[in-house]
TrEMBL record:
GO terms for molecular function: oxidoreductase activity. Pfam families: adh_short_C2. It comes from Heterodermia speciosa. The keyword Oxidoreductase applies. Keywords: Oxidoreductase. This is Short-chain dehydrogenase. SUPFAM superfamilies: NAD(P)-binding Rossmann-fold domains (SSF51735). Belongs to the short-chain dehydrogenases/reductases (SDR) family. InterPro entries: NAD(P)-bd_dom_sf, SDR_fam.
Length: 231
């Protein structure tokens, strides 16, 4: 593969979404960097990098960007897919321990903020023709509550705000920022019925699009983007 191949970095890459997205972008000629707690560089190949990272520590995002940039090049597509969710009794969200709340906030919001910062600073070094796309895997919690999931909801809602702000602020520079949220046909959350291939299809479409589209990419498997309005 030529050194001009584009690079995708998937932060929080696992067997469902991460693996489908990696396969779809590799098929389009991308070199792929995958970061998560269980990754090992022993599995590296010329076109696929494995970076051991725990996004409970936001510095691990900076390390992942340094590694991918040095080994494969500046990523033109960055996906933040990791999440942390300490559940709480539905009738007592304030029983959450501060240590759990702040670790989850690091994984769901602080590390994604650092990732978006790093992505934008890399985009500035790329040629005009590069994709320059940042995608955060969200869910419906930026528009509704699910009582046992306060910590996850706080993180998703805060990061939705970051994505919405970045989409507006950087669109004239050609950088695109998206909050992707798979839903059922009727707009309800998919919960565990996540479709990795549907994510990959949407992410490719967003990466290949020339202009910033709606920052909040609610989508349905087999349909694609669908606007459900405010919940
Ligand atoms: N639209 C919806 O309603 C909906 C429903 C379910 C999930 N989601 C979202 O989808 C995403 C995950 O989907 P998935 O499980 O199918 O994806 P996946 O790519 O199969 O797995 C995500 C990977 O993230 C890694 N990860 C978790 N915590 C991490 C941490 N602290 N540091 C580094 N890596 C970490 C885990 O790997 P390691 O164990 O190796 O770290 C995990 O395998 C999340 O953002 C979640 O909120 C949305």
């Amino acid at each position: 593969m030529s050194s001009a191949s584009p690079v995708i970095l998937i932060l929080g890459a696992g067997p469902r979404i991460g693996s489908s997205v990696a396969k779809a972008f590799a098929a389009k000629g991308y070199k792929v960097a995958l970061a998560s707690r269980k990754k090992s560089e022993a599995n590296d190949t010329a076109n696929e990098l494995h970076i051991q990272s725990d996004f409970a520590d936001p510095n691990s995002v900076i390390n992942a960007f340094s590694r991918v940039t040095a080994s494969l090049g500046v990523p033109s597509v960055v996906v933040y897919n990791g999440a942390a969710s300490t559940s709480n009794p539905p009738n007592d969200p304030f029983s959450l321990q501060l240590s759990d709340f702040s670790r989850d906030l690091n994984v769901n919001t602080v590390s994604p903020f650092v990732a978006a910062q790093q992505a934008a600073s890399g985009f500035a070094q790329l040629p005009a023709s590069s994709s320059k796309t940042f995608i955060y895997t969200g869910n419906a919690l930026n528009t509704t509550i699910i009582p046992p999931l306060l910590a996850l909801g706080v993180g998703k809602a805060a990061t939705a705000h970051i994505i919405q702000s970045a989409a507006a602020a950087y669109k004239d520079r050609g950088y695109k920022f998206y909050y992707a949220d798979q839903r059922k046909d009727d707009g309800k959350p998919v919960y565990s019925a996540i479709d990795g291939d549907a994510h990959a299809e949407l992410f490719l479409e967003l990466a290949e699009g020339k202009l910033q589209g709606p920052w909040q990419q609610t989508f349905v498997s087999g349909v694609g983007y669908k606007d459900f309005g405010a919940a």
